[in-house]
Write a structure and sequence with these properties.
There is one protein chain. By secondary structure, the chain is of the alpha+beta class. It is built from 3 helices and 11 strands; from the N terminus they run ααββββββαβββββ. Strands 2-11-6-8 form a 4-stranded antiparallel beta sheet, with no helix packed on it. It has a 3-stranded antiparallel beta sheet with strand order 4-9-7. It has a two-stranded antiparallel ribbon with strand order 1-5. The longest helix is centred in the first third of the chain and has 13 residues.
């Protein structure tokens, strides 16, 4: 199946369904099981902040403040592990407020939590800002978004079709 055909199918599946179908889908949820790995009941579980939120905030499960100096990165635990059905991933993304106000982001963005991972969710944060930043217990450090995935069928070939772009890489289509 060509990527164009596949993208057309995906487009129809997610964007062109009748309103009745969309309304019905809004009432369907993928179950996300969340396990606390430590005694951290003082921290809120991830949840949607509004009816139209796509992301759920993750909080820092640290026992003491962490000083993140300008230009440094560190691994922040959340104290949580998750379980959900195959066919989806959890994407771990930076929070826009931290990025614009303090220059705080993630090194690998988005991070991916696969359906078969059962370890602790940890977030690699980086301080792109010019000032040190303190991460405290319970701070909202990232957000997670559940996304459907499409798995590829791998086909080894000797030749791939030529295109106008060819081997043009970084910046080859303009800046």
């Amino acid at each position: 199946m060509s990527c164009f055909r596949l993208s057309s199918i995906v487009y129809r599946m997610f964007f062109c369904a009748r309103r009745q179908t969309l309304d019905a889908r809004r009432k369907e949820y993928m179950k996300l099981k969340i396990k606390r790995l430590r005694d951290n009941k003082d921290l809120e579980l991830p949840h949607y902040a509004s009816p139209h939120s796509s992301g759920m905030d993750l909080r820092a499960d640290v026992t003491e403040d962490i000083l993140l100096k300008a230009g440094e990165r560190t691994l922040i635990p959340t104290g949580l592990s998750v379980e959900f059905e195959d066919g989806c991933e959890l994407q771990i993304r930076p929070r826009s407020g931290l990025a614009i106000k303090h220059g705080i982001s993630m090194v690998n963005t988005p991070g991916t939590i696969d359906a078969d991972y059962r370890g602790e969710i940890k977030v690699i944060v980086i301080n792109h800002g010019t000032e040190d930043f303190v991460i405290k217990r319970g701070d909202r450090i990232a957000q997670m978004v559940m996304m459907p995935i499409i798995r590829a069928e791998i086909i080894e070939v000797d030749v791939v079709n030529e295109t106008d772009r060819g081997e043009g890489g970084f910046g080859s289509t303009g800046t």
